[in-house]
Amino acid sequence: MREHRDYLARTAGMTQRQFDVLLPGHNEGGTMKAMVLDRVSAVEGKPLRMAELPRPVAGRGQVLVRVLTCGICHTELDEIEGRVSPSQFPMILGHEIVGRVESLGPGVRKLKEGERVGIAWINWACGKCSFCVKGEENLCDTAKWTGKDAHGGYAQYTVVSENFAYPIPQRFTDVEAAPLLCAGVIGYRALRLSGMENGKVLGLYGFGASAHIVIQVAEYEYPDGRVFVFTRPNQKEHQDLARKLGADWIGATGDTPPEKLDCAIDFTPVGEPVREALRNLQKGGRLVINAIRKTTPIPELDYAEHLWHEKEVKSVANVTRRDAQEFLPLAAEIPVVPETQEFRLEEANEALILLKEGKIRGAGVLKVAE
Ligand SMILES: [Zn+2]
Ligand SMILES: [Zn+2]
Questions:
Q1: Per the confidence metrics, is the pTM higher than 0.85?
Q2: Centre of ligand 1 from the C-alpha of residue 123, in Å
Q3: What is the dihedral of CA 108, 114, 120, 122, to 10 degrees?
Q4: What is the 89 CA–ligand 1 centroid distance (Å)?
């Protein structure tokens, strides 16, 4: 019904075109609340806008998911501030989604109504390109990313292909499960890529949502390994959390640890820790950079000090379904206990500002359903 769409577009404060881009097909019957991003903006200006929109409808092979919780991730800051721009506006961000299957689109076979599922950053991959056929769908040429190319979880409902939704282990609450879906899954991928082994020393630069989960996985998988944590100098809360979770040494970025690092993961959004981690790496060591973008440049490297002796640098890009399928049961077995700070959906702007300021202890989670 065109009139109904006109009405909804007006009440959502959008032009008809913006509205059609946001929700091409929709259920005339129901609406949902969503926090939408209209354009690249400064996060301090609280750019996410609460809107009442029609519920999306599950297409072929898709399910409609009623969102229970959605984690907040640093990538949202990159999207809002334009370092990784959404492929269209307005966009609903959010890619750490825990929800219940509300209804099934045609042809859905694996999922059932009422099942609790998680949705991660990878929303769709082609399955045919040279990367996909090697199992590297995280590098797929035409992949879609949740909350960037497909609407995400800062809303009461979302749709996803049933092949990109994962069962959530029972032991996690809706709030606990949310950060596992990006911070946890990508942290797990970064840890695997780091080459960490039992008995070795792992350095973690930055101790936010992802690192505080990675340390729990590392303590479990490498009981004789040591973990050294580097934070910003003033992040006492982050340092306390690192201590509580078993860090063997804690310092500030710029400090020299008591031993060289066999491997390191940089979780920070800035450039300086890259050089610092390389400086502290053991010969033959590897640094993995777990960041979609850096907000400041990587300082100039000195070949002899930072790279010689076969030091390696590798970035971690996105995640595969396999990462999620392996990590979620492992997280339940360990069990990972995420430290979370809860916000309401309408507080998303404030939560993102706190995240930018490095003031969230553990992971921030939006409680979408009451
Ligand atoms: Zn993320
Ligand atoms: Zn592909």
A1: yes
A2: 12
A3: 10
A4: 19
